[in-house]
Amino acid sequence: ATLLFVYVSVATVIGHKRQTDAEACSGAGVLGIAWAFGGMIAVLVYCTAGISGGHVNPAVTFGLLLARKLSLPRALLYTSAQCLGAICGAAMVRAVHGARYYELYGGGANEVSPGYSKAGGLLAEAAGTFVLVYTVFSATDPKRMARDTHVPVLAPLLIGFAVVVAHLATIPVTGTGINPARGLGAAVVYNNSKAWSEQWIFWVG
């Protein structure tokens, strides 16, 4: 699931940058990128919730571990699979767009944007991750799901929308991580010193 998420989302970022070159037409834009990330999360949560819980994100897995809704061995297994899937997804983007464009447009790697401090980037990531994880807990609360029968059906859409709004707020600051596996996958394949030096922001935040 994380492989597909990273492939579609990062490919949207690279594709947008290619389409906004001087010789090309306009690209997806920030709004389109945010909807690509959120839409793919909604689809994948819907498809995988009954199989593996639909985490697709180490931050969600860690939150469920802290809430004692997931065992440590399973959390480690999920996180490892998410990171491996993210690396493979980023590698697929590089294969599709070619090394030249992939390197030229930063490989979709998360970095703190010029004009922002690392502390600001960390705070933005923490806020975005909180929005996502809080929505996951609210949308999957067993008591609420038992009381309101529509909640299980809407949960993937609500989680996806949380990802959209978090991206709209955070893209200008860090490119939006809120998913450590997504950041790691792009950093591994892009292999840039700045992306690596700031990787801790997307794990701590």
UniProtKB/TrEMBL annotation:
Protein's membrane topology: Multi-pass membrane protein
Gene3D superfamilies given in the database record: Glycerol uptake facilitator protein
Keywords: Membrane, Repeat, Transmembrane, Transmembrane helix, Transport
Any one GO MF annotation of this record: channel activity
Bilayer-crossing regions: 32-54, 75-96, 116-137, 149-169
Cellular component GO terms held in the UniProt record: membrane
Subcellular location: Membrane
NCBIfam families, alphabetized: MIP
Family listed: Belongs to the MIP/aquaporin (TC 1.A.8) family.
Annotated protein name in UniProt: Aquaporin
Source species of the chain: Triticum aestivum (Wheat)
Gene: PIP2-5
